[in-house]
Amino acid sequence: MRVGLLTLSYQLFGLRSIKERRAIVKHLVAQVHAQGPAFAVCEIDPDGGLHRASIRVAHLSSDSVRTASALAHLCEKLERGDGYEVTGAETEML
Under a CB-based contact definition with an 8 Å cutoff, are residues 48 and 54 in contact? Predict the structure, then answer.
């Protein structure tokens, strides 16, 4: 089995409270969960401040090409949204 890790760092815009920040992170996590059971996600570095967030996504597959493709597609999907944009993306295959 192959495990691919995708780490995404975000800049968050127009937030006035931690509650608003958490809503954006929950939305990103929900989008990953909607991709299916081969994906797992968590927030990392939760003390990044009000206007920054980072998540790490894991994908499990028997085919490393499929894993790389799935993570690349997910990265494109999560690049930009209402109130956030990606400032860094890193992929690692284990």
Answer: yes
Q: What percent of the chain has a predicted confidence (pLDDT) above 70?
A: 99
CA gap 85, 25 in Å, rounded: 12
CATH number assigned to the domain comprising residue 27: 3.30.70.1120
Indicate if the pLDDT at residue 93 is higher than 90.
Answer: yes
Query: Which residue type occupies 27?
Result: H
| Token output for 56 | 């790490």
The owner of tokens 């894993």 is 67
Tally the domains of the chain.
1
In the structure encoding, which two tokens stand for residue 26, read together?
């929950």
- Residue range(s) defining the domain that contains residue 71: 2-93
